[in-house]
Description:
Blueprint: H1 2-17, H2 23-43, H3 46-132, H4 136-145, H5 148-164, H6 173-177, H7 180-197, H8 199-208, H9 210-222, H10 229-243, H11 246-254, H12 258-266, H13 271-285, H14 288-294, H15 301-310, H16 316-342
Amino acid sequence: xxxxxxxxxxxxxxxxxxxxxxxxxxxxxxxxxxxxxxxxxxxxxxxxxxxxxxxxxxxxxxxxxxxxxxxxxxxxxxxxxxxxxxxxxxxxxxxxxxxxxxxxxxxxxxxxxxxxxxxxxxxxxxxxxxxxxxxxxxxxxxxxxxxxxxxxxxxxxxxxxxxxxxxxxxxxxxxxxxxxxxxxxxxxxxxxxxxxxxxxxxxxxxxxxxxxxxxxxxxxxxxxxxxxxxxxxxxxxxxxxxxxxxxxxxxxxxxxxxxxxxxxxxxxxxxxxxxxxxxxxxxxxxxxxxxxxxxxxxxxxxxxxxxxxxxxxxxxxxxxxxxxxxxxxxxxxxxxxxxxxxx
Length: 343
């Protein structure tokens, strides 16, 4: 059985190693193999290999580009998503802006109403205060109550704000003089003038309200000619009333702006403004210390010429004040000449 088994195994191996093929098929296969051996080296040359390499490279590039294109597509989708979100946010902000603009307009209208109300209230209140300030007892009571310093501070700030906001080229003088704001500042200036008209008030202004006096002098020099003459008159009257006090005139004389404002206002064009400027100049000329402080500045030819011109005014009170001022200036000139000759 062993021998039989080995024979059977050899027979199977023989069948696996050898295959029966027709001779014609074998010849044909042999011919094809020989042809391939002959022509294959010609086909598999360097050009083909280079082409294959390029194809592989191109395939890798295409694959890379596809990957980049996919990344760009994802980025595009992300940017589109952000754009949509930004557009929604922009639309929301636009709507909020429109709402805020409407609220701002409403607030502006309400603020204007409140400003008009405050102006009307301030004008009426200060008009009453102006009337009350004509009483010396009222001014004395204000000083006793300690309320006057805060009022004078508010008055100075209000007058300064009003003068700084003036625009004579845009607004007509008539419109401004009829406004509540103008009536308000007129009443403030009138109240200050009345306070300075009574001894206790004048003494207080001379000693404790230097900021107010400096503000009045600066604003008077700053204001344009022919604008708000009533306000200028009240401010000049207040300074004149203070100048009655020796301490008040001393402080005013130490301010380098006093003489320029007098000179400026004498050329204002409104005769009442010129009149009260002359009166303030007369007050300076009557005080020896002030005269010594200003010296020859009071005898400038331009100043003398201006006073001389006013002495020919057709307004009796202005003409008289100018003539009196000329007499004072000539007297001062003679004194200075006598001192020079004695030296």
